[in-house]
Amino acid sequence: MTDSTPQPPSSAGNPPEGASAPDFREALRRTVASCLPSLGDFGFFDVVDQGEVRRTVVAHQAPEIEALLAPTQWAKQDCSELNLCALSSGEAGLHEDTDDSWYQHIAASDGHLALLRQLAFRSMITVPIRCHGEVVGALTLFMGRSGRRHSAGHLESARRVCALAAELLQHKIHA
Length: 175
Description:
Layout lengths: L20 H15 L6 E8 L2 E8 L3 H7 L16 H4 L3 E3 L4 H7 L3 H10 L3 E9 L2 E10 L8 H22 L2
Antiparallel strand pairs: 1-2, 1-5, 3-4, 4-5
């Protein structure tokens, strides 16, 4: 029997020290893309950058999903019942089975519910990115069209990706 635990990408594509903002954003984009499709069908990084949260969205072979997510922005999650955003909670979250009733439960508005239904994801994971103990970002990945669902193995692999991403952010912070 082979080990089916998903493996993280081998490198986060660290930019050189002093990299420009476009280089940094492209490095984040490449890092998310390197997770796909093994750890998700689509996803995003939310990263705190100069007091603002910037979102980098990538969808594997699904430009329409990427276009749906591109205008979305991070919003602080106040609901402690479900961990939907590691940037808000500081904790990793695994939602192995999402469906329309789950969407209805978490939707902040009718528009949000419509977006969730269009994305049609079946599961999600969210993992914080820490630099010097402080949460500075989060990686959130979704399984959708592939019909797959996330497992604890996917979550562990995403944690390793976030450790690599923390190095990338460390370069940005000290640039």
